[in-house]
């Protein structure tokens, strides 16, 4: 009679714990090995759908990690939603000394401001809330990011 050998079971983490146990958005790390050819991924997009509180809970660790980046440049937030206040940034544990909150002027669109911030290169990452982007807009952001040696992250909240 053969002894019964029970297969070893892997421990399964709840969804959010598994997500948070991994490095947040490793594709956004400038010092990481390039993902395509010799050029790192300069444009990323994140779509979050659901209750605003849940979306903010998922967004907080991403922004926190970006605010603690080893790069000496800023994390720029372009036209963030009104719910991302200074109090929310503080409560989420972000390094507010490394963050620029930028709102477009009266003769400037959020896209123009994001492209300008990317081109100038004073920020390692420029986070924007531009909604759904067409290919032409993505290319504008990508060219601006390449010019400033920065990374662009567009967040779509649904």
Automatic annotation (TrEMBL):
Gene3D superfamilies: P-loop containing nucleotide triphosphate hydrolases (3.40.50.300). Transmembrane segments: none annotated. This is SOS-induced cell division inhibitor SulA. It comes from Pseudomonas farsensis. The gene is sulA.
């Amino acid at each position: 009679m053969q002894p019964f050998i029970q297969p070893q079971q892997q421990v399964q983490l709840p969804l959010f714990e598994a997500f948070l146990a991994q490095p947040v958005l490793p594709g956004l790390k400038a010092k990481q090995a390039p993902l395509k050819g010799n050029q790192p991924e300069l444009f990323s997009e994140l779509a979050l759908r659901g209750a605003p509180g849940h979306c903010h809970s998922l967004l907080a660790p991403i922004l926190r990690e970006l605010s603690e980046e080893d790069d000496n440049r800023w994390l720029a937030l372009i036209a963030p939603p009104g719910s991302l206040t200074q109090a929310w940034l503080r409560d989420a544990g972000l390094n507010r000394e490394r963050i620029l909150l930028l709102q477009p002027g009266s003769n400037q669109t959020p896209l123009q401001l994001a492209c300008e911030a990317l081109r100038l290169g004073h920020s390692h990452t420029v986070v924007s809330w531009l909604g759904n982007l067409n290919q032409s807009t993505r290319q504008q952001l990508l060219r601006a990011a390449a010019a400033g040696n920065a990374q662009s992250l567009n967040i779509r909240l649904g």
